Amino acid sequence: MYGYCFSVRSPAEEPLWGIEEDFRFFSTEGPTNGVVVELFPEAPPMDAVPANDAVAYTPRNVVYREGGKRFIDYHGRALGIQDEATGDFKLYSQDTGLLYEAAYLYLLSQIGQRLDAAGLHRIHALGVVVKRRAVLVMLPMGGGKSTLGLHVLQHRQVQILSDDAPFVDRRGRLLAWPLRLGLLPGSENTVPAEHRRTIQRMEFGPKHLVNYSYFSGRVCPSAEPGLLFVGARTMTPYCRIERISRMAAVRSCMANCVIGMGLFQGLEFMLQSSAWELLKKATLGLSRIWNCWQLLRRSRVLRIHLGCDADLNARTLVDFAEKCLADGEDITPDESFRIG
After folding, report:
1. Helix (H) or strand (E) holding 168
2. Which of 50, 86, 127, 305 could share a disulfide with 166, CB 3.0–4.6 Å?
3. Strand, coil or helix: what is 307?
4. Is 66 helix (H, G, I), strand (E, B) or coil?
């Protein structure tokens, strides 16, 4: 997976199948020499936690360190033990749903850090491909990126990069990150039952997921920049698109990539105390700024005002992208494109 290899082992079928389905796009046959994640459906061995002060606190866990290992206490419900040298991770819980979620989030944090170091950075946006060019829609958490993506995929000419966080390289090119689609409540019945499941999250309650199997034939591995939308929700019955300046989109890019708001960062695995670690984080910020600027420089930047009709939002986005990317036409700053 872009240079990061891992394998997951567990006698519990549910978390193992969930991880396998989420990362199926990147799966390979045969053994790997990468990180090993082991999931044990048993009582957490809390007596293994060292008797020293915690080094980090997050809403979901408390973290301790000793002897090159990191101990993550999920408030007594689970215990994770990470070997900081190898990245290997052992997770214990009698709750198989928690085993799945904690393992999934661990892998997100580790892959994100590894690819950050390689100059590939996530951007919190829906990423699709129209006319072989990337179309990104930046919306905050809960803004409906996945729901919009699901409706956009009803248009057979559209491919997907990611519903939540494609990667941006140093040239501004977008790379696929197609794990699963998360749906807002009430929209789950738009997907056949065999392609969806429901999970119970630690902090936010139940969430409906669309499995990779539903859109597996629609993934585009990479795409050059095309259109970059700053999204906004409205209660209007129509969807409207207007042009904005690149500088007007800088703030959104800063939040959604450079700072990473809305992206899971795995703070329990990132927080360090040394000055060297702080310096590396500053270097990382500069790298993210560079990639964002390359993306902005090579994209047409617009604002999309999403209305109440999800199908209409998707049709407006696709129709505009096809027109704009097919004939090279642009819209002047005082023009807008509206359907509804």
Report:
1. strand 167-168
2. 127
3. coil
4. strand
Sign of torsion over alpha carbons 15, 21, 27, 28: positive
- Please give the Cα distance from 8 to 197 (Å, whole number): 20
Measure the CA–CA gap between 115 and 166, rounded to whole angstroms: 12
Intervals of CATH 3.40.50 along the chain: 121-178+215-339
Token reading at 310: 């999800």
SS3 assignment, position 18 = helix
Q: Which of 168, 112, 174 shows the shortest CA–CA distance to 292? A: 168
Alpha helices for the chain (secondary structure H): 13-22, 96-117, 145-152, 246-253, 267-270, 275-297, 310-327
Report the percentage of the chain scoring pLDDT > 90. 71
Amino acid at residue number 190: T
- pLDDT digit string (tens) for 220-261? 999 999 999 999 999 999 999 999 998 889 999 999 998 887
Instruction: Report the CATH number of the 121-178+215-339 domain.
Output: 3.40.50
For 327-337, b/e burial (b = at least 16 CB within 10 A) is: eeeebeeeeeb
Residue 219: closest CA among 166, 290, 275: 166
> Residue 126: helix, strand or coil by DSSP?
strand
Contact 123, 42 (CB under 8 A): no
- What is d(CA 12, CA 24) in angstroms, rounded to the nearest whole number? 18
The residue with tokens 């009709």 is 309
